[in-house]
Amino acid sequence: VTSAISNFAKEENHAKSKITEMASQKNMLIKEVALASIELKESEERYKKLFNTINDGVYVADLQGRLKDINPAGAKMFGYTKGEILGIQLKTIYVNPADRDIFMAKLKQVNHIENFKAHIRLKNGHTKFFETNATTIKDQYGKIIGIQGIFRDISHREHSPLHRHHKNATAKKALTGHSHH
Asked: 52 Cβ partners below 8 Å, 6+ apart?
């Protein structure tokens, strides 16, 4: 009987020790989760600030080409407010919608595109050339579920097709004394 009582006491002490150890681990995990949550929130705030203040356009689209998110600068470059342009089918703002198909085919092939030139129709009907860098967004299984990219207006650049067209029209006007439209 004494031996059995002694064993029960040992088992009880062992169980108490286990409970204390588990409680300590639980407290440590709670602190780690709290710290990770703070770090995540800070990271999200930094991302949000960058997204909303960068001068380049930043966007996210789904695989069907619908605009899911765009920063204020990007919406403004296209002449829209963010509310007006969200959900738009991006292909519809391309001057040549087939260019969007080319863009998507390349992107799906190599998962990343740099310096793709896009001729875009703005809300006011004018057109501009934009250069975009984009990458695919994948789910945890590696399946492409969307696109994210950054773009900038390159219409003012010397080598921009729009700039060349304007320069040629101006040169013709100077040579002939009138414009050919």
From this structure: 71, 72
Q: Which of 155, 154, 116, 160 is nearest to 135 (CA)?
A: 116
Smallest Cα–Cα separation from 91: which of 121, 116, 70? 121
Cα angle 47-50-53, degrees, rounded to a multiple of 5: 145
For residue 120, which of 157, 75, 167 has the smallest C-alpha distance?
75
Per-residue pLDDT band at 177 (split at 50, 70, 90): low
**What whole-number distance in Å separates Cα of residue 70 and Cα of residue 36?**
27
Nearest to 122, CA basis, from 98, 89, 95, 88: 95
Alpha-helical segments (H) within the chain: 2-53, 72-77, 82-85, 97-110, 161-176
pTM over 0.85: no
